[in-house]
Write a structure and sequence with these properties.
By secondary structure, the protein is mainly alpha-helical. The protein is built from twelve helices and two strands.
Length: about 210
């Protein structure tokens, strides 16, 4: 076994983990064998293998609901307090306790980060959260994003019903959500123009939600 490990590592430029998988052992044992034979360990010019889609999907299914180590130790209340501190708004813990999913709350907050000047008013900010936190369309997009390996095309994207280039307003009545893909495809069309365009050109996609 030692000769095979040395050959795979030096001649074939395989990684410790790949050698361990091939020889049905673990990479710690492979490392000990190499060190025992005075072989210098390095990662230069090692073979790199691209994960198959099947392998990626298995990894994602196993880890998509796993929290980061940082937040595994943090309670929801602590995360809410941390969020309030970063927002620098005149809102309290009680104001956001009604939003039970802290990850979704943070996501909604991040969506408007570029446009935070448009939401300087705390009442408008809370109204924005109230409108979309339990909104059926937003929640459908949010869940599908998680289930699709965080595919960027399915990213929930804030959309203006009347485009901002033609009517500069961030009024809540003028805001909705769709996928990042559809937002880019709609471009500067109004919602009415966009739906008419899709109908007239028979344009369809499972990424369209408006």
């Amino acid at each position: 076994m030692e000769k095979e490990v040395i050959k795979l590592y030096i001649k074939d430029k395989e990684t410790l983990r790949w050698i361990a998988d091939k020889l049905w052992t673990n990479h710690h044992k492979v490392k000990r064998i190499l060190l025992k034979n005075w072989i210098e360990l390095n990662s230069k010019n090692r073979k790199k293998r691209t994960l198959t889609e099947e392998h990626k999907n298995k990894i994602w299914e196993a880890s998509k609901w796993r929290k980061s180590r940082l937040w595994m130790k943090a309670s929801k209340e602590l995360r809410r307090k941390n969020m309030i501190w970063h927002l620098k708004r005149q809102i309290t813990l009680e104001d956001i306790k009604k939003y039970d999913d802290i990850d979704k709350l943070i996501f909604l907050n991040n969506v408007i980060w570029r446009h935070r000047k448009e939401f300087n008013d705390d009442k408008k900010y809370i109204a924005y959260l109230d409108k979309f936190f339990y909104n059926n369309l937003f929640n459908k997009l949010y869940i599908q994003r998680i289930d699709s390996w965080k595919c960027k095309w399915r990213m929930p994207s804030l959309e203006h019903i009347l485009p901002i280039s033609r009517w500069w307003t961030f009024d809540l009545d003028n805001l909705t959500f769709t996928t990042w893909f559809e937002n880019r495809a709609k471009a500067e069309m109004t919602l009415e123009e966009w739906n008419s365009f899709k109908k007239e050109t028979w344009t369809q996609s499972n990424l369209f939600y408006l």
